[in-house]
Design goal:
The complex is a heterodimer of chains A (177) and B (509). Chain A has six helices and no strands. By secondary structure, chain A is mostly helical. Chain B is built from 20 helices and two strands. In chain B, a hairpin with a 4-residue loop joins strand 1 and strand 2. The chains are: A mainly alpha (177), B mainly alpha (509). At the A-B interface, helix 4, helix 5 and helix 6 of A face helix 2, helix 5, helix 6 and helix 9 of B.
Chain lengths: 177, 509
Amino acid sequence: MELLVFVAASAMVLGGALGVILMRNPVHSALGLVLTLFGVAVHFVALEAHFLAAVQVIVYAGAIVVLFLFVIMLLGVDSAEDLKVDGLTIQRPLAAIIGIGTVAIVSVAVLRTRSTIAAGPALEASGDSNIRLLSRNLFSDQVLAFEITSVLLIVAVAGTVLLTRKQSGPTGARKGS
Amino acid sequence: MIFAGSQSVIAQINQWVAPTIDWHALAPELVLIVGINLVLFIDLSLGAAKKWAMATLTGLVFLAAFIPVVTLAVIGDASREMFDGRYVVDGYSLILKAIFLLAAYVLVLMSQNELEEGGYYQGEFYVLMMCSVLGMVMMTSARDLIAIFVALELLSIPAYMMAAWRKRDSRSNEAGVKYYLLGVFASAVLLYGMSFLYGTTGSTKLTDIGASLVDGDLLGLQVLAVVFVLGGLAFKISAVPFHSWAPDTYEGAPTPVTAFLSVASKAAGFVALMSIVMLALAPANSVVRPMLWVLAALTMTVGNVMALRQTNIVRMLAYSSVSQGGFILMPLVVIGTGNAGDSVLRAVIVYLLIYAFMNLGAFSIVIAVARRTRSGEITSFGGLFGYAPGLAVLMTIFMASLAGIPPLGGWIAKFNVFKTVLDAGDTAAYVLALIGAVNTVIAAAYYMRVLRQVWMAPAPDGDVSPIKVPSSIQAALAITAVGTVLLGVLPGLVLRFGDITDLTGALAR
């Protein structure tokens, strides 16, 4: 059963990921991303990380990809846009070689490490232990990093508004250099 | 059922122990956060005519954040640890915080006129800059993979936007997009490596990771983790072969942003690299050393050879900054070999400090001259001595210092690096030192080419009216020139940093 779930979820993740990069239509790519994120959520459930699974579905599959879709639809990306334009002919084969090489190296490393890897810290048995462990970690050891991410939100808001603003700036003056 | 649930929650509240927070140790970060909000809100209510006040306010915030750094340094030498040793304020982090705040202050001075005259958004620029500096200041104290990653993103994301700040200029847009795409890719690679490290050691704390890795018996995944982590960080410090974004981004971005990227952002990358390599990856030396060796040798050589061919001064400084990064990498290669252990930190930190002074100085001159010539070509510096002797002399100081000519600061920096590498005393180190020496000579060639234009060539368009240098740039020039010369003449000022072998938890094992 465990193996079955694992294989199914992994197939979702990999299939979705391939779909993201291979689909011509950006909307299809975004839907492929949903599939990948759902697959990761299934993995989380299989690992009994129920809270993370819920967050994964609500935040990533739910909110973020829907935002992607909104942007794609609002911008009205032309599905016939030619992505085949290529600067250097050597780039694509080179990218393929590097990609396949990385996959091979990581696979070998994982397979060779599999039996020797130490078991992670044991989880408490009760149902909400995940949330408790997570929050305890987040609000004690990692609290500073957690708080600082709020500054990142300021950065995101301020920067995005500025970069996308239509008006030509406070004075509109510009300089040649 | 509900009652039982709520009772267990109450019981858990009683178990909860809040983390102790050392407010004094966190003061520099807190001052910066308050400053960010202050500038953001005051900027809202200011008319366009008064935007200049934002630069002054930002400068004051940086100076205010400097005060707790000084008091912390004066009060004691014991390190202050928070969150179970995940955030540490010690001598190492205090010195680096001081470097970042000082560089940020000089950068505000450099940006002010450029932003006012270019018609850029000003308040928001300084807000983003402060956020980035906050990330750097946190990076110096972060001793945990998560904290390091958050700090790295906090310092990078504003920089992506600042690189595209010249919105109407397609080259600035290109600079921003290139930097952003490659930066995000590098972050992903770094995170991938970090996840392997966490997965195979069970901790995100650097010292715990260091304790879990076993020298000579690394798992395959751990080797991969080290390679990915180093690769991700190599992008930040624009080490060859991860440097391809640097020249285009540096050229397209507004010049003060270029200075920011090449000095502050790069130094922060080195800080992350130092913390991770020394605390977490010390037992993985057999993987780290060869990789850093190759990175250092390639970075120096390729950066220099490319710099030789540039005709644009900003592009030349970009490649020169790539190659200087190679020099800063050199001491990191010899961590834990021979007698080099103790002086590695000192060599890197002294280099970062002096490099900040001389590179910011060189960029200040470029900004001052480009205000009139409106050109980035090296030939536009022709005849500078004739009509602006002050700038010419200063440019000579900075270029000679970058080339490593005594008695200027750059010489002390390079001297320390070479001494550290030679102290390691094995063949690999000697070969690396030899490559470094050859590169020093190559580097001198292109720095001298600029000076030949400055002193010997005639003014390109015959315009010899004196340059008017704005007072803020004058101040920036004064600070950087004094720093460059003083550290060269009195190296004892910074060589005391040698006492900071106590990168807390490191090298003690």
